[in-house]
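User: Modeling request: complex.
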Amino acid sequence: MIRYLLGRVGQAVLVLMVTFTAAFLLLQALPGDAIMIKFMSPDMALSADQIAEIRAAYGADLPIWERYFRTLANFLTGNFGYSIQAGVPVSQQLQVNLPPTLQLASLGFLTAIILTIAIAALSNVVGMSWLRTAIQSMPSLFISVPVFWLGIMLIQVFSFQLGLVSVISPGPVERLILPVLTLAIPISAPLSQILMRNIDEVLAQPFVAVAKAKGASHTWVLWRHVARNAVLPTLTIAGVLFGELLAGAVVTEAVYGLNGLGGLTNQAVGNHDTAVLQAIVVISALAFVSINLVVDLLYPVLDPRLGSKIGMAT
Amino acid sequence: MFLAKNLGLLAGALASLASVAFVPGDAAAQGAVTKGGTLIYLEQQPHTNLYPPAGGFYPNGGVLNQITDKLTYQNPKTLEIEPWIAESWKVNADATEYTFKLRPGVTFSDGTPVDAAAVAKNFDVYGLGDKTLKHPVSEVITNYKGSEVVDPLTVKFFFTKPSVGFLQGTSVIGSGLVSLKTLALPFDALGDATKIIGSGPFVVKSEVLGRELVMEARKDYAWGPAKLAHQGRANLDGIKYVVTPEDSVRIGALLAGQAQIIRQVQAYDEKQVQSKGFVIYAPSTRGINNSVVFRPDNPLVSDIRVRRALLHAVNAKEIVATLFSANYPQAKSIIASTAQGYVDQSAKLTYDPVLAAKLLDEAGWTLGPKGIRQKDGKELVLTAYESLPQPQNKETLQLVAQQWAKVGVKLNVLAGDAGSRVADNLDPLKTPVAPAMVGRADPDVIRSQYYPTTRNVLMQKGGISNKVQTFVDDKLNALLEAIAAETDPAKRMALVGEVQAYVIDQGYAIPIFEEPQAFAASPKVKDFAFEAVGRPAFYAVWLAPK
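Assistant: Request completed. Predicted assembly structure:
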């Protein structure tokens, strides 16, 4: 197990290095750079000499390999550089934007899971067939609703019409209610579709018939026998979706005016703010790698059969 | 002109207010000002670097205008320069030496004095830049040589060449005075509003980068512009800026009472706001009108007949009527009718597609099989990038494209990423056409807009672009240099008139409309004022009780 872990951590470090290098090269390949966008825009009305001085001061005229190793050395010592557009250290931007994104993503994810379980459970427990159909079609509805529209509708109804929550000066909990819902609803859709489908598949397997023949109730079978087996593929998808959540909250953040990584990324992309993007890419890669590691480690806990396979593979 | 426009605005405001039976009056004069309270202001975009010369970006100016004072105050109605931190000033005959006498007792919010030494250092940085700290030179200060501290309250500035625009330049956002501690910080640290220490009526208390900013009134503030009706500390206790990018959320929050003032209201949203009894403020930016300019270095538009044809093929009236409102007057020159030195050029700006077609025929561009004009096997297809800060610029350019299509000219409107946009806009071959607009209430803005070493919108040779082959207009440049140097105000205004006529005659620019800054406010907001180019001033603002 320890060997397995070490191997996985080594893989993760390799993935991060490759990501760092690829991001660096791709960002250099873009036409123009942040200095050009900031200082050569007509708004600054600078002369060619003044711009040349600024480029030299930023070290932008050094050869690419030298800039690469400088940036890498800075990253390893925790120095992410400055955002040229915003005029603040990248570390300060991350400090302000990372915690709210993590909080929003985690709560959104948790809510999505609760919604998923509720939908899947209800669709298997409810007796009336029309209600069952209605519940089963909810994920299709959720997945078709554009996040942008959903966010604006929630604000219009709950904040502006009913006055239940404030979006402009909310309290710490109030601030999160609508954004978390906005984020959770579309995430819960693919999860519940997969979970419901897997439950159906597992229910069709012979051991369920055996359990029922032994006198187990439908609910008992569902919770004790089916859920565990049906949850594995859902977990895989959930791992992928959570990674997407981190960067994918752009729309939610823009609609609610929340600060977070999504908005930061959006602005940094718009301005080719290389230092910011480089840091965000590496952090996102780190998040993806860690979550996949956690998901892989969770498999054998849920299904003991997988534990021995891992042992053999490494 | 200015009065007529404002009366129109006032009438609109009155009409909308009447629906809630609210009678506006100058409550300040009646002594009924309510002091205290926090105003919530919704901004569309987060501020960027707050180095004062970068205050041209409206979100930056909206912050800087509350926390910094300027040497002089430009009266937004008369556009005259009035005392502020400088009590008086003297300019020598050829405008190469300026002496300012400062008001005593003024302090920055860190307690240090706003004295001759601090003022001198501010302008040394803005006028010369600072290579080690990466501070760029300010656009409004030209030919700056240096400063001299004559005595603790007297400072003198020297220029290598006449610099007539400097006095007005001391009144703009970009010349906001900041503490020596702020100037000692590198450029890269000035995006943090709490680090900008000014002497203004408000102080930044805290900030969540990119999300919100809290300002507090300075209780000991006693040095507002001498001629303003309001004196002493600000009426409000504080202001909370909240960045709310989504238009519908800003408007909804205003109407629901969660905010009192919002910036950036599109023309199509004005009715919705006014019908609920809220007020639209649309102060003019008093500079270069929202226009389309040509880059004559590109052979497609190097012929004056082609440019003049395209000028007459644009129906600015239709653009304003389709996309905008009464707050966006149709342009009558390259500068706003509220700008200094404005001369009506509307006789030369007529919509005349027949003349346009005739001029294009004369220039040798004949209609091809696809309805696009051709010459020597080349099609007359032009390209422009949309400009994000200008209101509905993409729609404006698309409408121009439709109008040009009627005379057989194709215009491609590109969005592009910021990098391509800036790079391609420096290359006349890639962007023969570009949108343009600048807000500044001094004729110097025209020089800055067209002169090769500054904004250089026509892309003349001699600017920052290395893609320009040959295009230089010596006559235009001589006129622009004369505007910067002419010390006699009447002669200077005559030159300003001459440049307007020249630019239109050459077909260099097609002015479309006079751009306002659009704000919406709750009827409870009183004495909401703007500096000369439409940035909000919250100094005298107060909130009426219900």
